[in-house]
Specification:
With 100 residues, this protein is of the alpha+beta class. 14% of the residues lie in helices and 20% in strands.
Length: 100
Amino acid sequence: MGQDLLQKYVEPISVTKASPDCERGAGCGRPISRILAFHQDEDGHWVVELSCGHTQHLRHQPPWQARPWVLDAEQRAQRIGQAFACGWCAQGADSATLGR
């Protein structure tokens, strides 16, 4: 039939390395990293690679996630180097804590 929308989707672990780029104790809310690159996962979804070493899926699935720019190569390229609030760093996650 279809996916049960009431079921919680658990995102796969997305940590590649630790880095001082992501400062957790900065006191400014969410830590900021920079976008280094994009790649596609095995399902064809776009993943952003961050300067802090973390990765995050950036899906375009309207109406829940509206990111049409992620589907366009030129628009993705324009975002390289831009600041990105890393959700993993905001949670204090690193390679050691996500492996559990």
